[in-house]
Amino acid sequence: MIISLLNGIEIQNPGIFKVEGAAAIIFYFTLYSFIGWLLENSYSFFTKRVFFKPNFLWGPFKPMYGFAPILLVYLIPPNTHWAVVVLLCFFIPTIVEYVSGALLHKLFNRQWWDYSDTPMQLQGHICLPFSLCWGALAIICLQWIHPPLIAFYGVIEPFWAWIWAVAGLYFLADLSLATRRHSLKDLVSDESSNPIQ
What we know:
It contains five helices and two strands. It has helices spanning 2-12, 19-48, 63-75, 82-108, 128-193, and strands at residues 121-122, 126-127. A two-stranded antiparallel ribbon has the order 1-2. A hairpin with a 3-residue loop joins β1 and β2 (126-127). The radius of gyration is 19 Å and the shape is globular. The N and C termini lie far apart (57 Å). The chain crosses the membrane at residues 15-35, 56-76, 82-105, 126-145, 151-173. Keywords: Membrane, Transmembrane, Transmembrane helix. It comes from Neobacillus vireti LMG 21834.
């Protein structure tokens, strides 16, 4: 199954591993990560009256929201049966959320979100109610958001060809700085909780 899936990626998106494919991926990742940042902070504002929710990265981007749509777009070929699309729209964002939460917890000993008090949750990283929301958002994304973004990318592609590498370097720098910041926070909190005698 994995081999046929990988073959499907190659047939559907022969340019994905070329420079043009990388430029498109970074474009969609940037937009979707920013949209995710707006979505999470808006949800935080409506539920807690606080707009700026703690973020792993320095900038206004939520990488989970960048990775999930890209995986959906590149892994679901055209003419896929609607039931398969619905299942993938449920499982792909859920897996991305679980892996992100588990990795962040493992690497930094901290949870940026916690569903422990929510019914049908797994280790506080994922829960059924939010997975259903992600599934619905993924379907909306594939059906109504991504097609206009493809058209928009077609318009700005000549300009984007000049700056996409800078955007990629920005994300690498932000990831590096954020990793250092959170690692240092853990180091400081460990030292304060275990003072040297």
